[in-house]
């Protein structure tokens, strides 16, 4: 009792010990089995019928208890991947570093993971780490208690058994959730060193669930931000994307800023948020993304990153134009430079980089409202995204209202009305130029 009290006061330092878990009944937690997807229940029943332990685990249990709809359902079991695969007709093992099994039932895919063991010194299985203590490899199977201790926050270490409707809780996660606290399992500094992405997860999960990050877990972040530099870019990109498409991007980014975390932590936000115009534009983009996510509409990563990086492009574009470079080649060079810099830190995939460029490249073409050019713009495959992007620029005050309004009208007008809306060709354009058919791509020689 006293030991428990001391460990609580000290913020539970040292590796969490596999003590006996609380088994919490439905009367206390209120989570009923019909809230679990059919495929997930079926998966668990099948594993249990075959003599294994199986539970819903992680984000799904946490989200349901918090009254949110889970993104997906994950299952944890004591069966090995091979044993799991044998229990199902449509199941395949994926992953090399740590194998998991995808079980397909109907149109759903359930991810089944074998309990993972200790990677701390305690279990004798010392994980491979880099000089900063980041865990590079940890692929040891273990007990349920060990699996729970490996998870990041107490609210993420809950195991729900649909057949008994009980929750197995090793780290007081149910109580923490009720008290709206996001608490780290084990010593926060050690856990951040093992995996610096947990700092971003803390911010994201607190924003998503409306929780307060326990001071013991939020305090060390400030001094540990530079550890993010060691995280592989692809992982950082995935986590950034999760954060920005969580439906709470504004809250997450505000939070990162309040703590001074955007410096160094997120190179992308570092510069942008320190410039008033950039900030207004980014916040508008994030607000509109949050709105879309909450309305259940899809959000495009390309659009999002195009918005986050636009101010950088504008600055570089301006510098190149001042140097005397022609308008469009200067834009394309600015785009490449910005994407190259970001690619080093965030592994923006090639497909997304392509989307970003398409959206940016359309922007100067919205200025052209004479001849056949507007028709060419309308036919661009990324027109819609480019147009939404234009409206965001209008809203932030970067582009004249009148241009946005013109495009909105043009988009909804009949053929006849459209013809009447075209502006006279700008002075200085020759007759010959005007007769040329509309181009489908901005030419580099324009
Ligand atoms: P969401 O799905 O809403 O993004 P989540 O908590 O389910 O949140 P996942 O990435 O799906 O996040 O991870 C599932 C579970 O795996 C988590 O609930 C947690 O228990 C564990 N987990 C994920 N990432 C980490 C990590 N970096 N360190 C320790 N445990 C983790
Ligand atoms: Mg999840």
Class derived from helix and strand content: alpha+beta
What is the CATH C-level name of the largest domain? Mainly Alpha
List each distinct ligand once.
adenosine-5'-triphosphate, magnesium ion
Instruction: Trace the largest sheet across and list its strands.
Output: 1-10-9-2-3-6-5-4
**In total, how many beta strands?**
12
Uncertain spans: 1-16, 121-125, 440-446
Helix content: 40-55%
Chain-averaged pLDDT:
85
What would you say the CATH architecture of the largest domain is?
Orthogonal Bundle
Write down the CATH topology of the largest domain: cca-adding enzyme, domain 2
> Shape, please?
elongated
SS strand fraction: 5-15%
Provide the domain count. 2
Rg, alpha carbons: 26 Å
What's the total helix number? 24
Give the N-to-C terminal Cα separation: 77 Å
Largest sheet: 8 strands, mixed
CATH level 4 superfamily of the largest domain: cca-adding enzyme, domain 2
Description of the molecule:
There is one protein chain. The chain is 51% helix and 10% strand. Strand 7 (128-129) and strand 8 (135-137) form a beta hairpin. The chain has 446 residues and is of the alpha+beta class. The chain is built from 24 helices and 12 strands. It folds into 2 domains: 9-186, Beta Polymerase, domain 2; 232-424, cca-adding enzyme, domain 2. Helix 17 (301-322) crosses helix 18 and helix 18 (327-345) runs antiparallel to helix 19 (350-362). The chain has an 8-stranded mixed sheet with strand order 1-10-9-2-3-6-5-4. A two-stranded antiparallel ribbon has the order 7-8. Strands 11-12 form a two-stranded parallel ribbon. The model is unreliable at 1-16, 121-125 and 440-446 (pLDDT under 50). Adenosine-5'-triphosphate binds next to helix 9.
């Amino acid at each position: 009792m006293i030991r428990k009290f001391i460990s609580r006061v000290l913020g539970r330092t040292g590796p969490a010990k596999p003590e006996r878990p609380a088994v919490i009944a439905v009367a206390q937690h209120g989570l009923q089995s019909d809230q679990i997807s059919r495929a997930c229940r079926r998966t668990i029943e099948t594993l249990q019928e075959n003599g294994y332990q199986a539970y819903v685990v992680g984000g799904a249990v946490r989200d349901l208890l918090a009254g949110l709809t889970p993104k997906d359902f994950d299952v944890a079991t004591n069966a090995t991947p091979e044993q799991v695969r044998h229990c199902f007709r449509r199941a395949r093992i994926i992953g090399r570093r740590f194998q998991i099994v995808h079980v397909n039932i109907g149109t759903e895919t359930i991810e089944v993971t074998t309990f993972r063991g200790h990677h701390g010194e305690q279990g004798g299985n010392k994980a491979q780490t880099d000089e900063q203590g980041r865990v590079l490899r940890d692929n040891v199977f273990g007990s349920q208690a060990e699996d729970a201790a490996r998870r990041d926050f107490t609210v993420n270490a809950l195991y729900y058994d649909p057949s008994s409707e009980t929750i197995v809780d090793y780290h007081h996660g149910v109580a923490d959730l009720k008290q709206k606290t996001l608490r780290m399992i084990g010593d926060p500094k050690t856990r951040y060193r093992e995996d610096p992405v947990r700092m971003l997860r803390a911010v994201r999960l607190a924003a998503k669930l409306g929780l307060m990050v326990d001071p013991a877990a939020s305090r060390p972040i400030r001094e540990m931000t530079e550890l993010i530099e060691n995280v592989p870019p692809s992982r950082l990109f995935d986590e950034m994307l999760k954060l920005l498409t969580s439906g709470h991007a504004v809250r997450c980014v505000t939070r990162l800023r309040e703590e001074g975390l955007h410096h160094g932590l997120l190179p992308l936000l570092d510069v942008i948020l320190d410039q008033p115009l950039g900030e207004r534009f980014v916040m508008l983009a994030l607000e509109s993304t949050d709105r879309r996510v909450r309305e259940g509409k899809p959000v495009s990563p390309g659009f999002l990153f195009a918005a986050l990086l636009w101010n950088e492009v504008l600055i570089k574009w301006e510098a190149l134009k001042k140097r005397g470079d022609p308008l469009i080649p200067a834009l394309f060079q600015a785009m490449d430079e910005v994407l190259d810099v970001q690619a080093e830190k965030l592994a923006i995939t090639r497909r997304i980089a392509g989307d970003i460029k398409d959206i940016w490249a359309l922007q100067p073409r919205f200025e052209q409202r004479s001849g056949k050019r507007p028709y060419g713009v309308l036919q661009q495959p990324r027109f819609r995204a480019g147009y939404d992007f234009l409206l965001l620029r209008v809203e932030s005050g970067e582009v004249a209202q009148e241009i946005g309004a013109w495009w909105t009208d043009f988009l909804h007008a009949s053929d006849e009305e459209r013809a009447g809306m075209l502006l006279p060709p700008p002075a200085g354009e020759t007759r010959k130029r005007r007769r040329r058919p509309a181009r489908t791509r901005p030419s580099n020689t324009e």
